[in-house]
Amino acid sequence: MSERNLVTLYALAAETFLSEVMMEFIRLLIVFLVPPLAVYLQFGIDRHFWASCLLTVLGFVPGVLYSLYVMTARPPGLSRLSIA
């Protein structure tokens, strides 16, 4: 590989890494502001969303803790799918 290709590849990798870090930061910020919204954006309306809503209504801290747990235990995107 030429030096120019390596520099281009490095720039692309750095840009991808920064965008992933920024998205992770935004997701965590939303968790602390509106926990059910963060779960909805990651998983849609399912049992995790409703549990987050219920816990947030019962107390904001349990809602935040549950949302943090769910979002870190099940990462977004294709990485959470299992191939059987």
Notes on the structure:
- With 84 residues, the chain is mostly helical.
- Helices cover 79% and strands 0% of the residues.
- It has four helices and no strands.
- It has helices at residues 3-33, 35-43, 47-58, 60-73.
- Helix 2 packs parallel to helix 4 and helix 3 runs antiparallel to helix 4.
- The N and C termini lie far apart (37 Å).
- The mean pLDDT is 80.
How would you summarize this macromolecular structure in one to three sentences?
With 84 residues, the chain is mostly helical. The chain has four helices and no strands.
Q: What multimeric state do the chains show?
A: single chain
Major beta sheet, specifics? none
Order of helices and strands: HHHH
Euclidean distance between termini CA atoms? 37 Å
How much is the average pLDDT? Answer: 80
Per DSSP E runs of 2 or more residues, the count of β-strands stands at 0
Helix content range: over 70%
> Cα-atom Rg, whole angstroms?
17 Å
Number of helices: 4
Shape: elongated
Strand content: under 5%
Low-confidence stretches: none
Structural class: mainly alpha
Task: Please specify the SSE layout and strand pairing.
Blueprint: H1 3-33, H2 35-43, H3 47-58, H4 60-73
